[in-house]
Amino acid sequence: MALIEAENLVVEFPVFTNSHRSLKNTLLNATTGGRIAHAAGNKVLVRANDQLSFKIAEGERVGLLGHNGSGKTTLLRALAGAYEPTEGYLNVEGKVASLLDISLGMDVDASGYDNIFLRGIMMGLSPKEIKAKMIDIAEFTELGEYLDMPVRTYSSGMLLRLAFAVSTSVDADIIVMDEWLSVGDADFNEKAAKRLKSFVDNASILVIATHSEELLKNVCNRAFRLEHGQFVDEFDPRVEAVA
Amino acid sequence: MDELSIEPLEARQRVKESSYTLALRDLLGGVNKASIWNILGWQDIKQRYMRSVLGPFWLTISSAILVAALGVLYATLLGQSIEEFIPHVAGGLLVWIFLSTMILEGCTVFIASEGIIKQIRLPLTVHVCRMVWRNVIIFLHNAVILLCVLYFVPEVDIAHLLTIPVAILVIAFNGIWIGIVLGVLCTRFRDIHQIITNFVQILFFLTPIFWKPELLQDRGWVANYNPAYHFIELVRSPLLGNGIPVFSWSVIMLLTVAGFILAYFMLARYRHRVAYWL
């Protein structure tokens, strides 16, 4: 049973310049009123998601539209559990797989195999389960003997292949994704697309941020438009063209 | 379909779980995820010594050299017998390394796991436990030296020696709250790490590692008000056959309780902010 419910969801970022991270300025801030405090403590808060309320049920494929900086990725991060809402209510039921910045969190000094193993453990698989999937993942990446080498020797394309293969190897109820992932050169890309499609088909909810009308029409059955962190429109992309 | 389809508020009240419940779940859930921090901790060790022949036993060798060299040096400087001084230095130095590394690595515990924290949802305590576990593994490699220096101890009391594993467990346990408190603080204020580094350096000289507290005479409070001294005594006192240090145990027990209360409040208040501060 997969479900996402949100009510008045707010995600707010403190933006730190170097001076805000400094203890001295915070202390000055606390001990001095007035002028200095004003200069030192002018903390910038960015409200990336502003009072969002929605419900996404099983079987729904939701596309998020909006300009850069409209809060799409932040919302995805909140759904993935990386950012906890500052205010409001968010309930995510089901196992979430996040395909945002998939190459983040790789241990660059560890080998490819080690990284598959570590990532699997952190995603909640048992060592046994990972070992069972290991051959399949390794084969899929086509990295061969490179998998024994430290990840820092990989090209960015190879790194992405590895990250992609691992991230798509767990079963998930909910998938959050920033644009349809495309990995590797022409040949590999086709293979990856197939794997991604079956990964998505197996999940009961997909939330994807995108700029592509084509994708929206083909994949999604619901679309939200975000502007300045707020929903301004909802439509069915299969019926309605993107305004 | 133009209107916004915002679901109406449901009649039942949606109770947002209190931050204290979530903090408790983070703490217990994190400690409970042993399968994760165990593997990550070992991975860190493996990483550090990947291409060396002796692997983690380099830890033992470096510590042994340090204990031997500094033990002989300070025994001579302070005019004490080497046989008596080496076990004193070994016990003190190894516990100090264990404790101070946890303090220093506690400062960067979340910063170092930034990639994972932003990518995979795990209790923050898991990252702290990984750091503590890594240091326990290192300490256990060093513990070989403690066994060796028993050779110099005139009266070994086995019953007292058996309290040492408990002491190590208690020190490691304290590493968890230290890691949470310093980790949260240092993620928010990046200067605190530098302050702590300096503080730990000074503390090293103020702690009876290379000298004996008896030397202080009427200034014994320097040692008695120093928690690091009591942490060391938990291990060193039974090692040297001086019995179980009841006063040190009481101090550490109080510190453990106070520390965990502090860590719990820090988690409740700031746990959800850590990802934003990274």
Structure description:
Chain A has helices spanning 18-21, 23-31, 34-40, 72-80, 112-122, 127-141, 156-167, 186-202, 213-219, and strands at 3-15, 44-56, 61-65, 87-93, 96-99, 174-178, 205-209, 222-227, 230-235. With 243 residues, chain A is of the alpha/beta class. Among the domains of chain A are: 3-11 and 49-95 and 208-235, 3-Layer(aba) Sandwich (Rossmann fold); 106-170, no CATH class. In chain A, strands 5-6-7-3-8-9 form a 6-stranded mixed beta sheet, with helices on one face. Chain A has a 3-stranded antiparallel beta sheet with strand order 2-1-4, with helices on one face. In chain A, helix 2 (23-31) packs antiparallel against helix 3 (34-40), helix 5 packs across helix 6 (127-141) and helix 6 (127-141) packs across helix 7. Mean pLDDT of chain A is 83; it is low at 34-40. Classes of the chains: A alpha/beta (243), B mainly alpha (278). At the A-B interface, strand 1, helix 2, strand 2, helix 5 and strand 9 of A face helix 2, helix 6, helix 10 and helix 14 of B.
Text of the CATH class of the domain at 3-11 and 49-95 and 208-235 in chain A:
Alpha Beta
The beta-strand count of chain B equals: 0
**CA gyration radius of chain A, whole angstroms:** 21 Å
**Considering DSSP H and I runs of 4 or more, what fraction of the residues of chain B is helical?**
over 70%
Largest interface: A-B, 48 and 36 residues
Beta-strand content bin of chain A: 25-35%
Largest sheet geometry of chain A: 6 strands, mixed
Low-confidence blocks of residues of chain A? 34-40
Helix content of chain A: 25-40%
Main beta-sheet strand count, sense and barrel state of chain B: none
Helix and strand content put the structural class of chain B at: mainly alpha
Number of structurally distinct domains of chain B:
1
Number of helical runs of chain A? 9
Order of helices and strands of chain A: EHHHEEHEEHHHEHEHEE
How far apart, in Å, are the first and last alpha carbons of chain A? 33 Å
